[in-house]
Description:
The complex is a heterodimer.
Chain A: E1 30-41, E2 50-57, E3 70-77, E4 86-95, E5 98-102, E6 108-110, E7 122-126, E8 131-140, E9 144-154, E10 161-163, E11 167-171, H1 181-199, H2 226-241, H3 243-250, H4 267-280, E12 287-288, H5 303-306, E13 308-310, H6 313-325, H7 331-336, H8 340-349, H9 353-368, H10 386-394, H11 400-423, H12 430-433, E14 437-439, H13 441-446, E15 463-465, E16 476-482, E17 485-491, H14 508-513, H15 523-533, H16 548-552, H17 557-560, H18 562-577, H19 597-600, E18 624-625, E19 628-629, H20 636-646, H21 648-663, H22 679-703, H23 706-715, H24 717-720, E20 721-724, H25 730-735, H26 746-757, E21 764-765, E22 771-772, H27 774-778, H28 799-820, E23 842-850, E24 859-867, E25 870-877, E26 882-884, E27 889-892, E28 894-904, E29 909-912, E30 919-922, E31 937-939, E32 943-950, E33 955-966, E34 975-984, H29 994-1011, H30 1020-1038, H31 1055-1059, H32 1062-1068, E35 1069-1071, E36 1078-1080, H33 1082-1086, H34 1098-1111, H35 1113-1116
Parallel strand pairs in A: 8-12
Antiparallel strand pairs in A: 1-2, 1-10, 2-3, 3-8, 4-5, 4-7, 4-9, 5-6, 9-10, 9-11, 13-20, 14-15, 16-17, 18-19, 21-22, 23-34, 24-33, 25-32, 25-34, 26-27, 28-29, 28-31, 28-33, 30-32, 35-36
Chain B: H1 4-10, E1 35-41, E2 73-75, E3 78-80, H2 86-93, E4 97-104, H3 110-119, H4 129-137, E5 145-147, E6 160-162, H5 170-174, H6 187-205, H7 212-225, H8 228-235, H9 251-264, E7 270-274, H10 285-310, E8 316-322, E9 325-326, E10 338-339, E11 341-348, E12 356-359, H11 386-396
Parallel strand pairs in B: 1-7, 1-8, 4-12, 5-6, 5-7
Antiparallel strand pairs in B: 2-3, 4-11, 8-11, 9-10
Helix pairs in contact in B: 2-10, 6-7, 9-10
Amino acid sequence: MFGIRMLQILKIATIFAILVASLSTHSLEIISPIATIKSASSDDSPSASIFELNVQSSVAPTGLTTTTDFLVSLTLRPQAADLTKNASVYIIIVANNQFFKLEPDGSYAPWSGALETLTPFASDQMLASSQTLVLLDGTMAEAGDYLYFAAYSVEGESALHYTSEPAQISVKSSTELPNNIASQAANTFETEIETAVVQARCVACHVEGGLARNSALQFQRTNTSSALNNFGALSAYVDEKGSDLLLAKIAGGQGHVGGEQLPKDSEGYASIQKMVTELLMTSETASYVFSASDDGASARQASFLTEVILEPRQATLRRAALLLQGRLPTDAETNSTVSDETLRAILRGLMEGPAFSEFVVTGVNDRLLTEALDNIPITTGFPNFVKLRNYIFDNDNNTSIINNPLGNPLKRASGELVAHVIKNDRPYSEILTADYMMMNPLLNEFLEGDAIFAEDDNNAIFKPSRIEGFYPNSSTEVVEEDPNGPGKYRIIGPPLDFYPHTGLLTDFAFLVRYPTTATNRNRARARWTFYHFLGIDIEKSSLRPLDEASLTDVNNPTMNNPNCTVCHALLDPVAGAFQNWGEGNFKGDGEHDTLDNFYKNPTDGSQSLYQNGDLWYRDMRSPGLFGTEITENYSTLASLAALIVKEESFLEASAKFWWPAIFGREVIERPNDESDQSYAGKYRVYSAQQAAIKAFGQKLGSNMNAKDMLVEMIMSTWFGASEALNSAYSDDQMTANLGNKQLLTPEQLARKTRSVTGVAWRVTTHPNGVITWPHDQLGVLLGGIDSDAVTSRVTELTPMISTVLQTYSTETACLTTLREFSLPIGERKLFSYVEDSTTPLMTKTQNFEVESENRDDWEVRSIRGFAQDKTRFSLSFTNSYCDHDGQKCLENRQLFIQSLALKTSSGLSEKIQTNDPRLTFHPYNCSNVNGRGNSQIHFWGNCSVILDLDLLDDGFYEFSAEVSSIEAPLKGGRVEIEMSIEGYPENLSSIKNENVTLIKNQIVELYKKMHGRTFSNSDTKVEVAYNIYLAALQSYLESPSSNFSQCDNWKDGLMLSDFWSDEELSEARTLNEQGNGWDINWDKIGKFNTFQEDQYGAKRIWTAVMTYMISSFDYLHE
Amino acid sequence: MKTRRDFLKALPLAAISLGHPILSSANSFSLLEKFVVTIQAEGGWDVTCFCDPKENQKGEEEITRWSRNKTTQQFGNIKYAPFAKNEHFFKKHAEKMLIINGVDCQTNAHLTGQIVSWSGRTSGGLPSITALNSAVNGPGLPLSYISFGGFSRTERVTRATMLSPQINELKQLLASNVTGQGPIVNADIWGLIREINISDARDYLAQEKLIGGNVRLGRAYLESLLGTDEIRELADKLPDEGNGGFSQDELLKQQAFFAVKAFQSGLSASADLNVMSNFDSHDNNDTEQADSLSVLTEGIDYLWDAAEEAGIADRLFVVVGSDFSRTPFYNSAEGKDHWPYGSYMIMEKGANFTNRVIGGTDERQFGLKVDPSTLELSNSGSRILPSHVHSAMRSYLGLDSSELVIPFALNDTEKFNFFS
Lengths: 1118, 420
């Protein structure tokens, strides 16, 4: 059906056709041009056509109201080059913030905004110099602004000639009394039916999410346009189904599930009869309603969504990679992202592996909140899992030894199941229908699952598995009593043949998180089943008039009292489907029912309704869904799941389920009170979101592959809108929180930092291999949830979070530099441009091997570099060696320097003798300068000779030295030296040398990897970071230190294990006696402190820059 | 040679300014007349065991087990059930109490109950009373609105700071750039970085085409940065290690401790405390309620003691409530189910409206009507709704005339001036 909901007053298809200059029906009226627009071309070629939009009416275009009959026409005057060519004409109207395209039959259908889906209103039109086409003839049912766009394309040409600006028609609300019969019907509806009948009765069920949500008749709850839209809905129903059916149903006939709502002698019935009669007598005037919530809506219809610029594809790729994988995209992924289609393919590729599982597990827990449980979500006090029971017994009934090892994977199992389904391209419906659960090796062992694990599979690995070790009570007997517990059991009979796994519905943690009670009777489970998997919020699906009569009703009100049945008719059958799942295990003991004992055996002496063999309460509705009963008794949940996944709303609920995980914000709730000032805006956004959810759900429904849906979500405007084209829709965009930035959750931030910098901030490792991340304990402080008291994530920063993040950024920054500068440059994640010795001060440094064969075999080594002001020239012996026997060196390497020299680029030179008083040595007195005739410097240990000068002339200097060496032949290897020219200019910021370039390039790289932004190395942003660098350098020069002891390396819980071998680790820490912690070898761990060595201050200096990078908006938001 | 301060001056920062218009910092403290606290007993408390005591009636189903052998007690004008640790609590605090009984929460669904109890309307879309108070009376305070969970919807009039009750580690976590060996980054430079962050945020927000959602994030980033110094000052007042002498399960007391410190420091205007106990007693009602009510009363007691010690007790306005109440009879599992007629306990020291009970329920726990003008029970009066209570609180707290609050109208047709 068309998206435009025409009031079914007459068959519109017959009235509209292309009318060429045939406007006689309105000949007495005024024809007024409302816009004359010169065309533009979609391929930017010159375009000289003219589109003229006219309104023909008895009133001026500025005076149109909802009761004015008017005609809109387009006069097209094509450019000369297109005359006589065949063309297609396209018309778009923007109404209620949605696009509609004009169809050949004169009706309007929703349009997605995608050009490929645009279809012509008129085809095969031979273009004359002028032609006029009728676009609309009738009345606009709703007041508002309507924007018209027109276009045509010539056959065989790809360019589209279009109106670059819209023509606008404004229609005001009419203050006139209804002056025709159609209006009379509408008036009858509004005054007699909308409130008294529809809102009071019908809407309880005939509403989105209501019991009758599959009916052809759907109403809206009270809102600003509900009367109009509900009138339209009722009119359409009458037109399609006939008034007889309507009247029969409201009187309880024709199998109306809701029974009699209006007796035939009631006022309401009479009103509807009256309205129907008025409808049938309506005149042949078309009235247009462009509904914002009609079928066929898609994600890109609302104009606040279209008036935006999407981020570049690579930006989407980066954000998606961080979201789904917790890492940056690879170069290959980035380079392959050349079109939307290639991006889609790459996005699918991101939905695999353990990292993606983490994303899914977190996303599922955010909805189901199974992590909230304090204890193991499985009953260990009963013998049904015999192996587990006896293990507890054998360990002195100490359940704590198993609670976390077994409880944690059980809390994850729901997420692991969904991850398994998505990653393996299994039908998404399997999240509910799976006849297995996910187990890790430990679960598999204790539940006797049928999965097969390899010996080296750890407990982080989950596989599909079916319980084969569940024993009904009759299959076990006590073999050892225990006064402190249930005792030890042995198996005397077979386990259950078939454990009825049913996806998430039988997930242990889900069932325990939403427990049943004697009076709740699985209703909480049903409530959340509806909420998560059918998108129905039972609690909000109906008003709840709790009057005294209802509260005192003892005649089984949930079955009989309309005030109660509104919800319970929907809820209770689903609760019944959980009949085999009581508070504990399947059927409680595997073979009986889960019915409350007081129900079966009332203590007040009353007659029980219970009959032998019953599995469900006789004072509740039978198991089922939406009127379909479930008759199977064993796998009732499997039957329920099969019904749920057939529902279209399962698809939409699935899209809604994943909305917060992908977009980083909750779905907006439907506004309920039209008197709220922000109602209209919220409703627009709500409608657009619902349309998007529907579209994403349809994508999922196309082949039940969740990857398809998630890809489209990421490709959508909701994920990638980066800029507003104008300010026209800024309020709605604000309401919708539309944007391409999301505050990283604590989990996402930890993953990003680990991936980008390597740092595992404040992570602790347990000897059993469990790694605890800070968000496990500090999640709420960082904006996360605890799944219990705090169940919604913070999506915007607060001062408290920012304060914690300042600690985070500073500590992470220093840990990053410790890690990075401890690695060879080729193995680093970030610092690939600079060594720790790369500072602006070090204008030039170079390493040499001395190749002389003996002390007298002199050779010259030299370097050349820019120098100015205070400059240090130095030559260092860097690889001394001594094979010491306790008294002397059996062999050692030695370096001799005969002279030093400086030469400027202008040719001035100075030779510096070795006894020159300006020379100093580092460490102090490390050399022998009493060589032959005091003319040689002699180094036998690592030592530097330094010449500090205050240069008068800036420029390039050549620094050279005459050197020779004695090698250590048994050890091998030549003597190595390092020569450097290091400037200390008066003004650090004036330094311009290759190191400065390298440092700035490094900063560019940091921006790119950490913020996803690309700058030239002369950009202001780079200058900002470079000035932080210089300030930190200056600070270092004021108090130099070769050790960065302020950086607590233990705050990176994985630094040791990342850098040390298992063997080294095992020396550094051993399991304590209790087996629950480490004994530390402090001698060994002391070597860990070498990470803090900071010879050039690089770690300390770059920490300042990194602190800035990590605390920046662009790092904390992706 | 240049000093590092020269580099700071040389930085191309467009608009670094220590004075900023968005946050007024802790100076607002002196303007705050009242600190508003809600204590949310999530799950549905049984007020017949608390502030709306009910005794068994002959011929009727048993309504309370405690009344088998005890009778209703009273301190001042406040009647209470001799149940759990009520006696100590009511004896000590009755003078501060306004009890509003027989409030028709209009629902028996938990989430709707929380919405209506703390916002005043069942249909959602309204902020909590605490959010409104923060928005109007504590705008710009770094921790203007703190919440430990429960209903804390803001509808964007302010931002809620979500907290976890365990306050151990918090002090150390908030002490940024501090180690045993000295600051990680030179203090001047560290301050500089914060200023650059602020400057960046302003530049970001100045972009012409910035889209709505990104605007929100940018503003939040900027405003949150401006409040971090005060929070570090608050951290100095937190216990060094452990939980400050609290036992592991004294979660409500820890929340109260933090809230009082935040009020005392002038950083907060409102706080939502979450009892974090199981009031939803479908099974074993009396056991569950006794445990939970004990946690509740001990927590409230601690809150007042801490406020006294901090010198802010006379500025505290405390609202205690729940989703709704529990049925006036026991179910087959000794539990009680959901019941719409509940109560509010509003506490203030030295106020003229306290030591008073307004409204009530009959012996079967149905709400009684009250004359809005006299606040006396009257068959010709009206049932008290949460909206009435919220309207009165808004008025009493000086919120109702604020432009921030006007869009969130409660649309009451009757006004009950509970605070006269």
